[in-house]
Amino acid sequence: MSIDADLRARAAKVIPGGMYGHLNAALHGDTYPQFFVRGEGARQWDADGREYIDLMCSWGPMIVGHRNPVVEAAAAAQQAQGDCLNGPGPIMVELAELLVDLIPAADWAMFSKNGTDATTQALMVARAATGRAKVLVAHGAYHGADPWCTPGLSGVTASQRADNVEFEYNDLAAVEAAAAAHDGDVAAILVTPFKHDSFEDQAPAEAGFARGVRALADRIGAALVIDEVRAGWRLDLRGSWEAFGVRPDLSAWSKAMANGHPIAAVTGVDALRGPAQTLYSTGSFWFSASAMAAAKATIEILRDGDGVALMERAGERLRSGLAAQAAAHGFQVSQTGPAQIPWLSFAGDDTLAQGIAWAAACLAEGVYLHPWHNWFLSTAHTDDEIDQALLRTDAAFAKLRKESGAA
Ligand code: PMP
Predict the structure, then answer these.
(1) Same domain, yes or no, for 297 and 333?
(2) Domain check: are 285 and 353 in the same one?
(3) What is the pTM of this model?
(4) Which residue, of 273, 304, 335, is where some domain finishes?
(5) Which numbered atom of ligand 1 lies nearest the CA of 115?
(6) Digit-coded pLDDT (tens) for 353-385
(7) Residue 238 belongs to what domain range?
(8) Residue 114: CB within 6 Å of ligand 1?
(9) ipTM of this complex > 0.90?
(10) Most buried residue among 27, 260, 289, 375 by CB atoms closer than 10 A?
């Protein structure tokens, strides 16, 4: 029995379902390992010692390479002094100053642990500011796993969802109609920087949509909240909609903020400082200093080393390599999303069967990517790592072609 299989058998006895949540390997494909023991740069090793070129970056958090020495040194130095103390360390102020310096729409920052903390807290600020209940959210968008937003409805009551009003992403008329239907009671419009729903091709935000939701929020006196949890730190360190000239009132950040160390943030504009101050919103570990030290180090590396451009370059290299391979092997694929947060699907593959088979073949070749969730690149994805990955994805396409009975 493999070590992974043994751990799964033991887990089945002591962990509900053997595993839960987004890292439940059963959701990803039959051959995906559940347990991992090590990461280094752009690589990860599973419990049985198999090495993978990692194109998932732990579902986003890893952005400057697993065990980045600068980030780890900053976190370890803080850890050696104390992490969870009777009050936050000076690092909390330094980190908030860094975010306020970097992000034009940030005049203040509050910290927590997970993306769900940040999206939930941002909506609390919007509701505190407006005294209103409703939040306009895109149908199918993921904003976290609390009762108000989890895609699974088990354990959730209807009243916990009653204030979500849905619209279709990029459909400004639908947002306006949703706002009109709840005239006077809309606290916030909550959007992701691009459409990155699971199981389907990704789509960029249209400029008219981005500018339109900004104008609508202003018109109705609601907060525009951008959920940067997935896209944040990979597209534009100033905020993902800077290129549109659109600045939110509130942003929720997490995932890649501290290269795998647990931290999230809400940043907001001056006008919402007062309402933010009125919240009782806290957690035992929200003020821990070492994750804040890791966040400061991570963001400085990205800022000083032009990290976004590095990730974009890696993504373009991967994308053009995959496009050439797919064509050479006779597959029609679509590659969507920003290059640094990519995804690949096969034309006409409605059941995703082909995508699942190709991802499994990539896994067998030693490339960890995902059949129905977008992938993530990091600054550790050097040209050499991408080229190594492409050798393996080519073998996976070849295997798929052979299995499909093509010549
Ligand atoms: N918002 C978005 C856009 C996300 O992608 C995620 C996580 N996948 C979340 C919120 C929730 O973050 P967390 O899992 O850290 O609570």
Answers:
(1) no
(2) no
(3) 0.98
(4) 304
(5) 12
(6) 999 999 999 999 999 999 999 999 999 999 999
(7) 69-304
(8) yes
(9) yes
(10) 260
